[in-house]
Amino acid sequence: MTRDEALGRSIAANNRLVRKDAAIGLRAEHVSITTPDGRRIVDAVDLSVEPGERLAIVGPNGAGKTSLLRLFFGRLKPDAGRILLGDRDLARISLTERARMFAVVGQNDLPDLRMTLADYVDLGRIPHRGRVSAAADREIVERALDLLGLGAAAGRRLQMLSGGERQRAAIARALAQEPSILILDEPTNHLDPRARADMLETARHLRITVVAVLHDLTSVSPFADRVAVMQGGRLVAHDAPAAALDPKIVRNVFAMDCFPFTNPETGRSLLVFDTPALGGSNVARALVP
Ligand SMILES: Nc1ncnc2c1ncn2[C@@H]1O[C@H](COP(=O)(O)OP(=O)(O)OP(=O)(O)O)[C@@H](O)[C@H]1O
Q1: Do β-strands 209-213 and 54-58 pair in parallel, antiparallel, or remain unpaired?
Q2: Of the four, 56, 90, 121, 155, which is 20 to 30 A from 24 by CA?
Q3: Which CDD domains is this protein grouped with (predicted)?
């Protein structure tokens, strides 16, 4: 059994973490956000995420990725356009219901570091409190911890965990919420390459809708079904990874070279990125006499 299959089986065995009504899609219809000084940080974006799909949002710094992500789960309201959750307008869905549907792992989710890991992951149960027995809540927390390989650390305080372990704890907390939609803002920050691959692989097996802002472009194609490329608040591509991260688009948007590559052992297609030849960037020009 490959590692990938083993993970799939472990997640299937822990499938209490995946809601039966998990297959919900999201749609942004012509959404915009304009700042008080008149800047369009999200500009007339139309974008759909199919039920159970994993969408990666990529783009350079300041492109509007986090703002678009926040529109998707209602943290920000659009000035124009609307967000649909399934066929319902998100603006008409109560905060309580949203809290049960969306689990969000943000960039700076620093809780009180004196909490134990188990208590922290139990926070994910708050939207469901009273709907199932306390024993069922505990079991779900344990499953979420086991799934992220943190079972043995359940009694440790967060301050005793490494950055990578805290990041996994945040994902465990999100999964304990049994969300329909998982929202990840740069989830692989602080993770070493193996932990990063594991985390994205875990998200890949969940069979729920996942929307993730990713900075590391090499993580995108193993993880995502589709990719939204943002630049200057606009959506400039929305397609399967190889098409959305086409070399021309990558060069225009990121000033990087992109080379498609197939892993000869697995047949999996991967994208390799490089900076353009010296002289292609202002920094390089400044450094080379
Ligand atoms: N509340 C706000 N008020 C004014 N400007 C904002 C606000 N939030 C974000 N911005 C600006 O909007 C633009 C897009 O920000 P956003 O955080 O969505 O980009 P991003 O693509 O996620 O960037 P990064 O990769 O650096 O995290 C930036 O220029 C940012 O400074």
Answers
A1: parallel
A2: 121
A3: ABC_Iron-Siderophores_B12_Hemin
Long-range contacts at 259-267 (CB < 8 A, ≥ 24 apart):
none
Q: Tens digits of per-residue pLDDT, 155-194?
A: 999 988 887 788 888 889 999 998 889 999 987 777 778 7
Q: How many Cβ atoms sit within 10 Å of the Cβ of residue 277?
A: 9
The answer to whether the pTM exceeds 0.90 is no
Class of domain 3-245 as given by CATH: alpha beta
Q: How many residues does the chain have?
A: 289
Residue-range domain boundaries for the chain: 3-245
Closest approach atom of ligand 1 to CA 35: 4
Give Dmax (Cα) for the chain: 69
Q: Whose CA is nearest to atom 24 of ligand 1?
A: 61
- Give, using CA atoms, the residue closest to atom 25 of ligand 1: 61
Task: Using the mean position of ligand 1's atoms as its centre, give its distance from the Cα of residue 41 in Å.
Answer: 7
**In terms of Cα–Cα distance, which of 39, 103, 94, 88 is closest to 67?**
39
Whether ipTM tops 0.90, in short, is yes
Output the six-digit token pair for 272. Answer: 């390799």
Give buried/exposed letters for 120-139 (b at 16+ CB in 10 A, else e): bbbebbebbeeeeeeeebee
With CA atoms as reference, report the closest residue to 208 among 43, 78, 22, 32.
Answer: 22
